[in-house]
Amino acid sequence: MPRTTRTSESDDATFAREPAPAHPARRRLTVAAVAATGLTFAALLWVQTGHYDGDRTPAAAATSPAATSAAPQSPDPLTSSAAPTAGATKAPDNTGKSRDAANRTLSDWTAHNPAADGEHAVGGKSGSGPGGPIGEVLRIPALGKDWAQPVYDGVGDQQLRAGIGHFPDTEQPGQIGNYALAGHRSGVADPAFRDIDRVKPGAEIQVTTAHRLTYTYTVTRVRTVAPTDVNVIAQVPGQPHATPTKAKLTLVTCWPATGHSKRVVVEADLVSAKGGA
After folding, report:
1. Residue 197 belongs to what H/E stretch?
2. Which domains does the chain carry?
3. Can you say whether residue 99 is alpha, beta or left, with left for phi > 0 and alpha for psi between -120 and 50 degrees?
């Protein structure tokens, strides 16, 4: 598989990367506030002029004046702000099984790609779980030695009741820009981010892909924001019109621990990438 390398401006370390597509066009931001059910928090949704294809690879964004001035697309129904209709059924609560799903996925990826020399992990076989295909596995040592969560594409009820959700149209792991994720802190059997307060600046966050590339990020900032502060998942967090120069990761969950009046936002910078799980 083709590989590219990029040198970090912060420490001059060279990172192995999965093939990176052309940089997406500057995105428009909007909020899709999920109805307050005591279970979910208001989700943030990015709407861009391009789209993602079935392989989770950003498609080339339109550059014509008509495309850039078009009205934003309708929110993804998975993160729609519309209240549930009477008698609507929520997705089953599979959070109690999420860690098993993550660890089983890591084992499957290892079995289908035994290379672990740190340079040539090029296999790839996506696992699946209750939230759909598992794109990555998230590990945060500060939350426990064996803590692991599957990462699904989307931040709807189905994904967040099965593990962690990846905000649609934000970047992929290891790419320049912002890889943004969301998870529950309460209201489900085993909230992924129940103990998010343990994550402090300097903590490590690891993301492993189906190609057995593991990206390690270091937390740089933890803060609390209003639910409407969509800029936290901009390409450069807090600066929606800036051009990104770093690969970043952002985690979003509720604040306080049993409420949803605000959001806890954890920001991290990429520090290394290697083959093997």
Report:
1. none
2. 4-275 (2.40.260.10)
3. alpha
Convert 186-202 to b/e letters by CB count within 10 Å (16 or more is b).
bbbeebbbbebeebeee
Residue with tokens 């692991």: 148
Q: What angle do CA 116, 122, 128 make, to 5 degrees?
A: 95
- Amino acid (1-letter code) at residue 108: D
Q: What is the 3-state secondary structure (H, E, C) of 41-90?
A: CCEEEEECCCCECCCCCECCCCCCHHHHCCCCCCCCHHHCCCCCCCCCCC
Give the C-alpha separation, 168 to 166, whole Å. Answer: 6
Instruction: Provide CB contacts within 8 A for 55, sequence distance 6+.
Output: none
Q: 123 with 115: CB under 8 angstroms? A: yes
Separation CA 242–CA 182 (nearest Å):
23
Token duo for residue 207: 């993301």
User: Over the stretch 31-45, which tens digit does the pLDDT of each residue have?
Assistant: 333 333 333 344 443
- Cβ distance 202 to 80 under 8 Å? no
Q: What percentage of the chain carries pLDDT values higher than 70?
A: 65
